[in-house]
Design goal:
24 strands, eleven-stranded mixed beta sheet, alpha/beta, globular
């Protein structure tokens, strides 16, 4: 008898087949049946800790005490917004590779802003939105899980916002679900399926935000949280009360703490209706919660709302973990939680405190640059347009005049660098050619197909203003701390103070469920 025949005979005696053995190896001891990846938009460690006295024992406290907590997490690129952050978490790499440089970028063909997931080829389901992940240039964790299991794994993504839902779902998910801004139903895209599942239709008919928006009121979850301010340790005489009306009612609702209950509710419905975690094939559920300020106000104007947001998040995490552990088994579920980083939207009046500040004008700079380059090479519109802190040169004109991009960007860099309010100027050729520690974070955020020829870094305290569009923003270089937490299958409680980058989350999950990391991921697993 040959070794192969002996091997097959042994398997038969044990009641196993080669396929069953392979599946067992892929989902063996210590491998979760369900991974729940939780991204909380704008979660901050300082707020997370400040409100801990009013948490329950089964939410944030449970994660912090029984999980592996990496206290000092950061994104390896700048600037960061929700779109670039969620794409980086799901792909395990940076915008330089996955191409999602932000929620919007400038389309070089039309010279108009392009939305990161807008795709007119794929109409929405239960929404007038169009969406697909085709702008995402690499595979995601969900994609690789689908590949590894031959499509058998279930992959769902749920978020209040379209960009977060689509970018965490990736290319091969079963569905990406978000709340429609106009009608308040949970919706999806025809990219994933030709129709929404029946369980989602039933859910929308009974529990969608559309069904409750007229009676929805956001006020403190309980009396104590509405009368005591943990920011200043002082009593509060004016508890808040918000209702949602008008054309923007659903958008306002999605920027309130109430939306987090909707995310949990539909996540529980999804798990129950699809049977996620019910077999030995690992499934993936990606959830996005909201912890930003209400209506993008300053924190100082909505302190009590922020406090209540974290208290409600604690409640929702407790509900989510309790359901998964009871129905799938505490040893069969891995929870991974992190943040999109913190988008500081507060407009600070530095002049009132005599702190150095100013405004850098993009349109004025473009005009001066045209004059400067025209004096060198002859008159012409050398600057095609500007977008945020980026300057786009006219490549066709440069080709006509036989001027290299490298020469044009170098000349432009010299001029812009001498202007007030400029801390640094990076050129596209410089970011593509050099990979040094000094430029690494800017280079990681750069993508040659999506970004301009010059990237301007404003001086601290200075805002950048586009006079044509009246859009302005103030870059913030200060670091806001947020955590990465692993809790569940095979995790030993531990608190790690060493700084870690978020691109290491995806390879860590991949190692845990024994599959290949996303195809542009080169970071090492965290453990």
């Amino acid at each position: 008898m040959t070794n192969r025949h002996l091997y097959i005979t042994l398997l038969a005696l044990l009641g196993l087949t080669p396929d069953a053995l392979a599946q067992s190896a892929a989902n063996g001891s210590g491998t979760p049946r369900l991974v729940v990846s939780i991204t909380i938009d704008q979660l901050r460690s300082d707020y997370l800790e400040a409100f801990s006295p009013i948490y329950s024992a089964n939410g944030f406290k449970k994660l912090m005490e029984q999980g592996m907590v990496f206290v000092n997490a950061y994104y390896p690129f700048t600037p960061v917004d929700r779109a670039s952050a969620t794409a980086s978490i799901s792909t395990g790499t940076t915008p330089f590779y996955h191409s999602i440089v932000g929620s919007q970028w400038l389309n070089r063909e039309t010279l108009r802003p392009a939305d990161c997931v807008e795709d007119r080829q794929y109409p929405g389901l239960l929404t007038s939105d169009f969406a697909s992940p085709t702008g995402l240039a690499t595979s995601t964790m969900g994609d690789e899980l689908k590949v590894a299991t031959g499509g058998k794994a279930l992959v769902y993504s749920i978020a209040p916002f379209r960009d977060a839902a689509v970018l965490t779902a990736g290319h091969a998910a079963d569905a990406a679900l978000w709340i429609d801004d106009a009608f308040g139903d949970w919706c999806s895209s025809t990219y994933y399926a030709t129709s929404v599942p029946e369980w989602l239709r039933i859910y929308n008919d009974t529990k969608s935000p559309r069904r409750k928006i007229t009676s929805a009121v956001w006020e403190p979850l309980h009396e104590f949280s509405g009368t005591y301010n943990y920011y200043l340790q002082t009593p509060n005489d004016r508890p808040f009360r918000h209702k949602f009306t008008g054309d923007r009612r659903f958008m306002s609702y999605k920027e309130s703490a109430l939306v987090n209950s909707d995310v949990t509710e539909i996540a529980l419905q999804c798990m129950g209706s699809t049977g996620m975690g019910g077999d030995r094939v690992t499934d993936l559920l990606c959830l996005t919660y909201y912890a930003g300020t209400y209506g993008h106000q300053r924190v100082t104007d909505c302190q009590m709302e922020m406090q209540d947001t974290y208290l409600r998040l604690d409640t929702e995490l407790s509900r989510l973990m309790d359901y998964a552990e009871r129905n799938i088994g505490a040893d069969n579920v891995l929870f991974v939680l992190t943040s999109t980083g913190y988008d500081d939207v507060e407009a600070v009046d530095y002049t009132a405190f005599r702190i150095p500040t100013g405004t850098f004008y993009m349109t004025r700079t473009a005009n001066l640059l045209n004059m400067y380059l025209g004096a060198i090479w002859g008159q012409g519109s050398y600057v095609e347009t500007t977008f945020r802190n980026q300057i786009f040169l006219n490549h066709r004109l440069l080709e006509t005049k036989h001027i290299s991009i490298g020469d044009a960007t170098s000349r432009a860099q010299e001029m812009v660098a001498m202007m007030s309010g400029v801390r640094n100027v990076y050129t596209s050729t410089q970011l593509l050619a050099n990979h040094s520690p000094l430029t690494e974070r800017v280079r990681n955020a750069f993508n040659p197909q999506r970004c301009g020829d010059l990237i301007i870094e404003a001086a601290p305290g200075w805002q950048i203003l586009n006079e044509d569009t009246h859009q302005s923003y103030m870059p913030v270089a200060s670091f806001t701390q947020f955590p990465v937490i692993f809790y569940g299958t095979g995790i030993t409680p531990q608190r790690v103070l060493t700084p870690v980058s978020t691109d290491r989350i995806s390879p860590t999950i991949a190692r845990t469920i024994r599959i290949r990391a996303p195809n542009a991921c080169s970071a090492e697993p965290l453990f």
